[in-house]
Amino acid sequence: MLRVWALLVLCLGMASGAKAQATAAAGTGADAVWRNDLAARRAELIKRNGAGTDAALREKLVAMYASDQAARGAGTGHPVYTAKTAEVDRQLTTELKEIVARHGWPTIAMVGYDASNDAMAMLTHTPDHAWQVSLLPRLERLAGEGKIDGSALATVVDKDLIGEGKLQRYGTQFKVVGGKMAMVAVEDPEGLDARRASVFLPPMKTYEEMLAHMYHLPVSDQVAGVR
User: Fold this and answer.
1) What are phi and psi of 127, to 5 degrees?
2) Which structural domain, as residue segments, surrounds residue 183?
3) Run of H or E including 221
4) Is 50 exceeded by the pLDDT of residue 133?
5) How far is CA 78 from the centre of its chain?
6) Contact call for residues 161 and 149 (beta carbons, < 8 A)
């Protein structure tokens, strides 16, 4: 059976800039120019928004994200999606909904850069697609205002498009096909790297190297269908 792995950060796409840089540096041959651009963008967002004013909420989101990643076998070399993963996703969705209802979306100013991106990663994995879609206008506005990381939001956009049976935009979503990771089809493949650069995602080749390093699976030249 084909499985779609919501990747970024890790799930790479959703990981924090610091985590993504660490992964890139870990022997993947990631592009130095992109790493420098990402570091500059991260520093800019932190300088503009601060380190986060709600330490308790930051710690809660970090712990929630650790559960999200553990349920996916991140760092083990054996990515999984099981009934336990689905159960964790449902529980984390309930907790994230409560946070958003009480505090609003966790911005960088509220919880810091990394925890804000952790919240976005968990939103990417939510089984409540309708809730996910309902948040997009607000999240796109926050990204445009520099209050959250736009590269993290790109993964949510891609997952929503695939959920609607459409081509993804930024190439963050892959399927495991025959023991290899294959990118789900994207709109305008020739312009993919330019779109990724516009939201501070790495070039596709660099991203594939990161995924292979993280999941210990080769990346296929095959493009997977949306369905």
Assistant:
1) -80, -10
2) 4-224
3) strand 219-224
4) yes
5) 18
6) no
